[in-house]
Write a structure and sequence with these properties.
about 20% strand, about 25% helix, 19 strands, about 475 residues
Length: about 475
């Protein structure tokens, strides 16, 4: 089920059946704030740019890998431009003073984030997801946390004001804290004004919903009332946060399902662009995205479906397709895949804490992150004569990434058909460029990333194997 459904994906909790969670109270007052942080960057213009692709380093998935000494390196190998921390829903209950959330028994601190940032060579900018649920009117506690992060050396550039607060939340916590979008919008105005004063150049983003659930007045009116209240409070957000888990999803994937499945990313880009038109050109951050997860008794620890799409090689094809098409969405400036880690290949880029391995989806995120790293522009690649999907869109698609001078640097191409495809060389796919390619059976169960093949682009064309993802111009 996607963002319109009953699951806040940042924590994978079913809204109508959550119990046993003790809600955190209002955190202790900071007792004053430090001086404004220096060296923060000015807001980026809407559109693709360096650091576009990021990844979630969230509380719950990090807890699964508490005994893994290599988490920082594993996160860095995904080549993220941003590291979102400590979201998803865990951010709404997170106490930074002790690095925990209620009942967790796990400590996840600013130092953990700093270690991950350092492992990326300081290339992945932290994206702080604040606990405004516990601090709706007093910004001092969360500003104290940001000042401590700055004292560790981290830049204070990207800030989110909570996670998916438009949902009911565990035990109805979100509707209790913010009965409607107006209440949240007032908090947005308070935080935006305070954070702008404290951290010049910082970008502050507010929660908006992409797909309201049917018959949910609170969700239906959330975006408009939130933005109106923030504007009335004198401080509108610098960016809008959206989450998307497009599908369709299949619990028993077959070859006949594939064309419809691969239509999903095209629809996702269209949905985001349509939403952008309602936000008046404000930049959008897609801080969670992945393939739509299944919802059944597996959520409660029951057996998985027979051949769920999330456990097949099709997940890699879908996620690569979705990620490389996101630069085409209007006003989308930052995207973060969910999530860096997971117990299984369900949603994690790295899985199985007892025997850590890169997942098929993780390989897609790594390759697209590699392609986009440092690029300043991105343009679609059209493959002449490509077959089409049921909605008429190309079943072979690609995206080129270019440097400041507009020269080709890297490209990613996805062949979503069972036929080999020839792509003519071009300025974006030059002859002799190195490439890495993975192929497989989309309907086959696959927990770990497959072994890719390497080569160089021929003098005339690049050959795409059936059902393949190909990265050119870089080594992942």
């Amino acid at each position: 089920m996607g963002p319109s459904a009953t699951i806040p994906h940042g924590r994978m909790l079913v809204k109508r059946s959550i119990g046993g969670l003790v809600l955190v109270g209002v955190l202790a007052s900071a007792g004053g704030t430090a001086a404004a942080a220096a060296g923060t960057a000015p807001p980026a213009a809407a559109g693709f740019g360096p650091g576009f692709y990021g990844v979630n380093y969230d509380f719950e998935s990090a807890a699964l890998f508490a005994k893994d000494p290599n988490v920082d390196h594993q996160l860095a190998t995904l080549n993220p431009g941003t590291i979102r921390w400590p979201g998803g829903t865990g951010a709404d209950f997170y106490d930074w003073h002790n690095g925990t959330e209620p009942g967790s028994g796990f400590t996840f601190t600013l130092q953990d984030l700093d270690n991950a940032w350092l492992a990326t060579g300081k290339q992945a900018t932290p994206m702080f997801d604040l606990n405004v649920l516990s601090n709706p009117h007093d910004t001092s506690d969360q500003i104290q946390m940001l000042n401590q992060a700055h004292n560790l050396g981290m830049p204070i550039r990207y800030i989110e004001l909570g996670n998916e607060l438009y949902f009911d939340g565990p035990n109805g916590a979100f509707t209790t804290g913010f009965p409607n979008g107006t209440d949240y919008g007032q908090t947005v105005a308070t935080y935006v004004a305070a954070l702008h004063r404290q951290f010049p150049g910082v970008q502050v983003a507010a929660d908006a919903i992409l797909h309201p659930a049917p018959n949910t007045p609170r969700e239906d009116t959330w975006n408009a009332t939130m933005l109106a209240a923030a504007a009335a409070g004198g401080a509108s957000p610098d960016a809008i946060i959206l989450h998307d888990y497009p599908g369709p999803s299949y619990q028993d994937l077959t070859a006949t399902d594939l064309p419809t499945l691969f239509d999903g990313p095209y629809k996702a880009v269209s949905d985001i662009s349509a939403a952008a038109r309602t936000f008046g050109g404000t930049p959008i951050w897609l801080t969670e995205y992945n393939l739509d997860p299944w919802v059944n008794n597996h959520q409660a620890g029951g057996p998985p479906p027979p051949n769920a799409v999330q456990t097949t090689y099709a997940h890699e094809l879908f996620l690569a397709e979705l990620a490389l098409m996101l630069p085409r969405a209007d006003h989308l400036t930052l995207v973060d895949s969910f999530s860096g880690f997971g117990r299984t290949a369900f949603l994690g880029d790295w899985a199985d804490p007892s025997n850590v391995a890169l997942t098929p989806g993780g390989q897609a995120i790594r390759w697209v992150g590699t392609a986009g790293q440092g690029a300043t522009t991105s343009v679609p690649i059209t493959v002449p004569g490509a077959p089409t999907l049921p909605d008429g869109k190309p079943a072979v698609t690609g995206q080129a990434f270019r440097d400041t001078a507009g020269h080709a640097t890297t490209a990613v191409l996805v062949n979503l058909t069972d036929k080999a495809i020839t792509v003519p060389v071009s300025a974006d796919i030059p002859a002799g460029a190195p490439y890495t390619q993975i192929t497989g059976d989309p309907t086959a169960h696959q927990e770990d990333a497959g072994t890719p093949q390497k080569g160089t682009v021929g003098a005339v064309a690049l050959h795409l194997a059936p059902y393949s993802v190909t990265l050119t111009g870089a080594t992942p």
